[in-house]
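In this section we turn from sequence analysis to structure. A common task in structural bioinformatics is to predict how a protein folds when a small molecule is present, because the ligand can shape the pocket around it. The inputs are simple: the amino acid sequence and a SMILES string for the ligand, here guanosine-5'-diphosphate. Study the lines below before reading on.
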Amino acid sequence: MSDGLPPPPPPPPPEDGEAFGGNPFGSLVQPAPLILRCKVVLLGDSATGKTSLAKVFQGGATNFPKNYAMTLGIDTLVKRVNIPETNVVVELYIIDCGGFSVCQDVLRPQWETANAMMLVYDVANPESLSHLEEWYAQLKHARGESAISGVVIATKTDLMDRPGCISVEQGHQFSSERGLEFFETCSAKGIVDAPFHFLAERFYQKYGERKVELENLH
Ligand SMILES: Nc1nc2c(ncn2[C@@H]2O[C@H](COP(=O)(O)OP(=O)(O)O)[C@@H](O)[C@H]2O)c(=O)[nH]1
Ligand SMILES: [Mg+2]
């Protein structure tokens, strides 16, 4: 039905740079990523493969150290993990701790501020699993009431067929008794990513939960 008025004029042509809603590059430009920083501590006896794990995660299998160099004190490596189907990047600060108890005073402040931990044992060294209990106890002691996400990592699975190795079942049992996720890795073959990605996603999930909690405070 006509109301007798002339039709409205067409909208003005877009000005330079506004053809796509004010963004000269249109939908080609991704929104800036949200970067979350997560500090992960690696714990476990000397020579269990912590440094190899961190280096191979950071740089791929070609980064597997050719010669053993004992870590004294701490080393820090940084690597970003994209969270699938989001614009979120979790930047992992991996704190590679030396296995010597003389360095505990250096490690303690790192433990107190860590967001996640990796408890590392070597499948070919049964003592390294029994010592994990002690590492875990020390970390919990340093943190008091503050909870932490964690995983247990069995390293050097290429040595699994050696006599006296720790079985996958033992690793699973140790982890499930403590409510921790269990992963098998082999730095020598470049199989190390899964536990790091797991912790990054867990951290993002916790961030989301915390955000909702804070929003609900109003
Ligand atoms: N066979 C085998 N050896 C490994 C593997 N990862 C580490 N190693 C060796 O274990 C030794 C200790 O490794 P390192 O990463 O320095 O242990 P860290 O003292 O816990 O940092 C080195 O001689 C490594 O070459 C692996 O996946 N397979
Ligand atoms: Mg080391």
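Helices lie at 50-59, 104-113, 126-143, 168-177, 193-215. As an exercise, try to locate the residues that line the guanosine-5'-diphosphate site and compare them with your own expectations.
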